[in-house]
Design a protein that fits this description.
This protein has about 1150 residues and is mainly β. About 0% of the residues lie in helices and about 45% in strands. It folds into ten domains: about 300 residues; about 120 residues, Immunoglobulin-like (Sandwich), CATH 2.60.40.10; about 80 residues, Immunoglobulin-like, CATH 2.60.40; about 80 residues, Sandwich (Immunoglobulin-like), CATH 2.60.40.10; about 80 residues, Sandwich (Immunoglobulin-like), CATH 2.60.40; about 70 residues, Immunoglobulins (Immunoglobulin-like); about 80 residues, Immunoglobulin-like (Sandwich); about 60 residues; and more. The strands form 28 sheets. It has a 20-stranded parallel sheet that branches. Strands 3-5-8-11-14-16-18-21-24-27-30 form an eleven-stranded parallel sheet, with no helix packed on it. InterPro entries: Ig-like_dom, T9SS_type_B.
Length: about 1150
């Protein structure tokens, strides 16, 4: 019975006492904005700040016009979710997105290298419902939902409020490094669409996910649920779902993976790698993969890896089919792959069977897993490829190591007839029989439909009655639960390495096959379909292509015929090919010729080399031959078994000898005057191929590279030569000498050159000697002949040319330099330089001390070579370059110094950042700042009034009266002065804001504390209108006593000569604290009486305002009454009726206040 009356009030109060100690809250998202009040970012921030001891809820109530749905565009990462938070977008009153149950889209901009939609960081008890979490396309390292750190009890999606995640590189991502693993415990992922848009249709890559789910270090995970509407719909472009569990159970159930929402279309990305769902880890729990649809393009459908401690159950899955399980959907190498797992079952009963189809290779791969029971499953349309390399398996057992102490289970068919099949299997094996089925282009029959189970004997032998069937396929499971491959035909996998080829058209070819079973019957056939053998191996056949034809699943069942690949027996008759042959001649008179590089085809070959000359003599028995003399040679190769031969040749070995020099026609021509007119011609070198010539002179320098040496001067020359025979020549030629008739030689070693004085032309050239000199003359720089003998005197400094000739036509010219006497160098050891300043000619060079020679006179020249001074010191100089020339006592003049004088820049005033502050309210608050000055420091400043009075000596002028122009005077270190432009500082008055003061409520006899809330600089004046009472201070805070009744006060403030408007306020006197509240309101949205808001008289602060229904359930909670209650709960209007309200706070005396009452909601 529902409580009523006083009992209801008591229950309500008791509920309030319980709830009032909790910090749980509801934060409602009311805007699509990225940030600000009512945004999702704001709600997460507030929820995170509200503590984690109680669960907070983030609900959605965004106003949109149908059929529009909310889209929140996020430009930067949202705050990570902390513990005890529920983000529930299913509370939004909009329609759902597509076929999903999501109602709000969270659209994340993808303009960053790394970003996420939502993040859960080191948190527990976090739930996310009803969101479309999307981005504009896979970009960078992006995560739809990222789980980081140590987390527990995480729920993503649920009944009727799943999420949609697409466009991110990873849909759901929770990976911690193995070096610092962070455990994610009790993770639930249900009813989500991941890797496709909300329409559930297979999306383009940009709207899918590189990998939809990647989570590691799990301790318990539920992926899907216990019924179909809780399953996830998953697609990916490159990888599928990967779950790695360190502990706990793993359940992946009722999911559609690799298909669209209808289960009739699959993904088709040829970039996809590995498994569409993979589960791994060291957990010792139970791994359950059941009731899933796994299809689309992949390498493996389901993969279980490293489950060494736990057990697995794979049941009722459709792998490689569409939703009905009757037709193939997509393609993969294998449906299921087990690697390094301990034990488990795939199928088990007909009710738990898996359907596996559409594999172009083996349906089930078992690697290093010794207790995998594969029972009563349905397989069809597998091994569907035209590439045949080995036997086609249904179950492939790999890396089965006998050293582990366990024999591999097996089943073999030995005999069959119309009624019975017999065979052998692992002793005491549980045998399963299946009805064979073959797709149109499958390589073999699959065991599609389970028939029954029987046992093999203790010796492994078994017999099976066909019971009217024309074929059956078997499997065997040993006592430990390991299941064998099905009874498909098996042959040796090394046949290609055991083919014996034939030759010479003989029938000696063989194809050695070491094993063959589960083929009843079988035979060998050629390319034309002719039967050529009925033994395990094929013997004594001619060249051709042959294959095994095997009948599986019973006796001579045409539907289940299986073919090996064709194996080729080649005709390898002897053939000699010379394309790569190399013949080396016999060189330099030695028997060193050779023949190598011949290519031989054939088998069982014997080699025989012999010469062509009769009688033929055998000289070699290998594929190559060396040490041959010049002559012609043949080779014969013979197939010693098949009897045919091939002959190559004749091959010629030529003779190659050293080069020889012939001097019988040599001619020499001398070089007159030693000009390059000499030559040595008529030489002949007899040799092989291209002849190389090298002429060298007496110094060993190369002067020619041809047979004839021409255009050379007199000298001694020698020829070296070689050819391409590789044989060394006898040696270089004898030396050839070319003479130089009439050559003129001048001996400069005996010459004496006398220098000329600084002021007298007394230089000379004497002592020269010359041979073959007939005509001699001297010329100066102007080409004037100044002498005809070998000696020349009375010369000025300069260059002189000597020319000598004779009747041979020889001419020699040589130059001589007569130097001038070099005086002692005069240098400057000390001087004082003063640059001109202030743009005046007041520069100088003084105090000069010279060292070296003895000065006799001085000359100063400016940059225009004008003489400006003839004394040692330079004065009254302006900008410029000045050169000082000094003559010594020998009258030799030299440049002693070059001086540069430059006027420094005047100070420069920079007004780029000038700032002028006017004088406000005559407070002498004017200021001029921001001027920059560049000049020679130290700089001095003076601010001048219009009458030149100095008012400030700082660069920044402050405390300036308004109404004047001010000028800055700057003086630099040189005493140079510059002035700024006049700068005006105005006198202004401003409108002051009226003081802000709240009305004051006090109890009778209390002091009224009055405080200005918008405090400014100035003096505050408090007064009572109509009286002379007033108080003044600069703090804006007043304490007024002796107030006997409600009184009106006025207050203003003054800044300088400016006065603000007056603010009037009341001080009310009350006898007691009171709370007023309406007894009913109508929240119908008409703008009248829509908000329930109690009002407290004498209440200083509020701590709690809550409203509860008649059952004591809180429908509204806040920390003050300013907002009020709008009559809704979780975004929806409450029912009409009575509700209880409670208000708590502190009154003006500092005492707690608590008031309660009832309010009626009417519509």
């Amino acid at each position: 019975m529902k409580p009523t009356g006083v009992k209801l009030l008591l229950i309500t109060i008791s509920f309030f006492c319980v709830f009032s100690s909790a910090s749980a809250a509801i934060f409602t998202v009311t805007t699509q904005a990225d940030s600000g009040p009512g945004s999702l970012r704001d709600a997460i921030t507030k929820a995170n700040s509200n503590g984690t001891t109680e669960k907070d809820y983030i609900y959605f109530n965004i106003s949109v016009t149908s059929p529009l749905r909310p889209v929140i565009v996020i430009n930067s990462d949202l705050p990570a979710l902390s513990s005890n938070i529920v983000v529930d977008a299913s509370t939004q009153a909009s329609t759902v997105y597509g076929v999903s149950t999501a109602r709000v889209q969270l659209l994340r901009n993808n303009d960053q290298a790394t970003f996420y939609g939502l993040r859960i960081d080191n948190a527990s008890d976090v739930e996310i419902y009803g969101l479309v979490i999307a981005t504009g396309g896979v970009a960078g390292e992006s995560y739809g939902i990222q789980i980081s750190g140590t987390c527990s009890d995480i729920i993503i999606g649920g009944n009727a409020k799943g999420n949609v995640i697409y466009g991110f590189k990873f849909g759901i991502y929770g990976v911690a490094p193995n070096t610092d693993p962070k455990t994610i415990s009790n993770l639930t992922i249900q009813n989500n669409i991941i890797g496709m848009r909300e329409d559930g249709v297979i999306a383009a890559d940009a709207y899918s996910c590189y990998q939809p789910v990647l989570v590691t270090h799990l301790n318990g995970v539920t992926f899907g649920g216990n019924r179909a509407d809780l399953g996830n719909i998953i697609a990916g472009t490159t990888y599928g779902v990967y779950l790695s569990a360190d502990a706990g159970d793993v359940a992946a159930t009722f999911n559609k993976i690799g298909t669209d929402v209808s289960g009739t279309a699959g993904t088709a990305s040829y970039l996809f790698r590995d498994d569409y769902i993979a589960i791994a880890g060291a957990t010792n729990g139970i791994v359950t993969v059941a009731d899933n649809l796994i299809a689309g393009q992949s390498v493996y459908g389901l993969g279980l890896y490293g489950l060494r401690n736990g057990t697995f159950r794979v049941q009722r899955n459709k792998i490689g089919t569409e939703i009905t399980g009757t037709a193939v959907l997509g393609q993969r190498s294998s449906g299921i792959r087990l690697t390094d797992c301990m034990r488990g079952v795939i199928g088990g009963t007909l009710l738990d069977k898996n359907i596996i189809a559409g594999c172009y290779d083996v349906p089930v791969v078992v690697v290093s897993t010794y207790q995998a029971t594969i029972s009563q499953n349905e397989m069809f349309c597998n091994n569907n490829t035209s590439i045949v390399t080995g036997p086609a398996n249904s179950i492939q057992l790999l890396n089965w190591n006998p050293a582990d102490g366990k024999a591999k289970p097996f089943v073999r068919v030995l005999t069959c007839n119309a009624t019975t099949i017999t065979g052998i299997a692992t002793p005491n094996a549980k045998m399963e029989a299946f009805i064979p089925y073959r797709c149109g282009n499958g390589r073999k029959c699959d065991g599609r439909n389970y028939i029954e189970t029987f046992l093999a004997g203790a010796d492994g032998k078994w017999t099976y009655a066909l019971k009217g069937r024309d074929g059956v396929i078997f499997s065997a499971t040993d006592a430990t639960g390991a299941t064998s491959d099905y009874s498909n035909p098996v042959w040796s996998d090394d046949i290609e390495n055991n083919i014996v080829h034939t030759a010479c058209g003989e029938s000696t070819g063989r194809i050695i096959n070491k094993i063959l079973y589960n083929a009843t019957p079988f035979h060998w056939e050629d390319e034309n379909g002719n039967t050529v053998g009925t033994d395990t191996s094929l013997l004594n056949v001619p060249a051709g292509r042959y294959r095994l034809v095997m009948y599986g699943a019973g006796c001579n069942k045409p539907e289940c015929v299986e073919y090996s690949p064709f194996f080729e027996v080649k005709d390898i008759s002897p053939v000699i090919q010379t394309g790569t042959m190399t013949i080396i001649p016999a060189r330099c008179g030695v028997n060193n010729g050779s023949i190598t590089g011949l290519q031989f085809q054939g088998i069982n070959l014997k080699y025989n080399w012999y010469n062509v000359n009769m009688p033929a003599v055998s000289i070699g028995a290998g594929p190559t031959i060396n040490n041959l003399a010049p002559g012609n040679y043949n080779i014969t190769i013979t197939d010693t078994i098949n009897g045919c031969t091939a002959t190559g040749g004749p091959f010629e070995i030529s003779a190659v000898n050293a080069p020889v020099l012939n001097l019988s026609t040599v001619q020499l021509q001398n070089a007159v005057c030693s000009q390059p007119t000499g030559s040595i011609t008529g030489l002949v070198v007899n040799g092989t191929g291209t002849i190389t010539y090298t002429w060298t002179d007496a110094t060993g320098q190369t002067v020619g590279n041809t047979a004839q040496l021409t255009n050379v001067p007199a000298g001694t020359y020698t020829l070296a030569f070689s050819d391409q025979s590789g044989c060394p020549a006898a040696g270089p030629s004898q030396p050839f000498v070319i003479t130089a008739p009439g050559e003129i030689l001048i001996d400069r070693s005996t010459a004496i050159i006398g220098e000329a004085s600084c002021t007298v032309n007394d230089g000379s050239i004497t002592g020269l000697q010359a041979t073959n000199a007939e005509t001699t003359r001297w010329m100066d720089d102007n080409g004037t002949v100044i002498g005809t003998g070998l000696n020349l005197t009375n010369l000025a400094p300069g260059n002189y040319r000597l020319e000598i000739s004779n009747t041979y036509g020889c001419n020699v010219t040589t130059d001589f330099d007569v130097p001038q006497h070099e005086p002692d160098l005069i240098t400057v050891s000390q001087l004082n330089t003063q640059n001109p300043v202030c743009n005046l000619n007041n520069g100088s060079v003084t105090g000069m001390i010279l060292a070296g020679g003895t000065p006799a006179s001085y000359r100063w020249l400016n940059m225009n070579d004008m003489e400006v001074s003839t004394v040692k010191d330079l004065t009254n100089a302006g900008d410029g370059i000045y050169r000082l020339y000094v003559k010594d006592i020998e009258q030799c003049e030299q440049l002693v110094a070059t001086i540069i004088l430059k006027t420094p820049n005047l100070p420069r005033i920079d007004a780029t950042y000038l700032s002028i502050i006017d004088d406000v309210c005559s407070m002498t608050s004017g200021a001029i700042a921001g001027l920059g000055v560049n000049g020679k420091e130290p700089l001095s400043y003076a601010w001048l009034t219009p009458d030149s009075t100095v008012i400030s000596t700082s660069l920044q002028a402050q405390s300036l009266p308004g109404g004047y122009d001010y000028t800055l005077r700057v003086t630099d270190a040189y005493g140079c002065v510059v002035y700024s432009d006049p700068l005006p500082v105005n006198a202004v008055d401003i409108l002051l804001l009226a003081p802000t003061v709240k009305d004051v409520v006090i109890m009778k006899g209390m002091t009224a504390d009055i405080k200005v809330t918008n405090l400014h600089q100035g003096s505050y004046n408090l007064f009572r209108p109509g009286t002379e009472w007033s108080e003044t201070n600069t703090t804006g805070e007043f304490s007024v006593t002796d107030i006997t009744g409600s009184t009106t006060f006025g207050i203003n403030y003054q800044f300088g000569e400016c006065v603000s408007p007056t603010t009037y306020f009341k001080v009310d006197i009350i006898d007691a604290v009171k709370v007023y509240a309406p007894t009913a309101f109508s929240p119908n949205g008409d703008g009248h009486n829509d908000i329930f808001r109690p009002k407290g008289i004498g209440v200083a602060t509020y701590s709690l305002f809550t409203v509860m229904d008649r059952w004591g359930n809180s429908v509204y909670t806040a920390k003050d009454v300013s907002t009020g209650w709008d009559g809704t709960f979780r975004g929806k209007k409450v029912d009409a009726g009575a509700y209880v309200w409670l208000l708590q706070g502190i009154d003006i005396l500092g005492q707690p206040v608590q008031e309660k009452g009832a309010v009626l909601v009417v519509y």
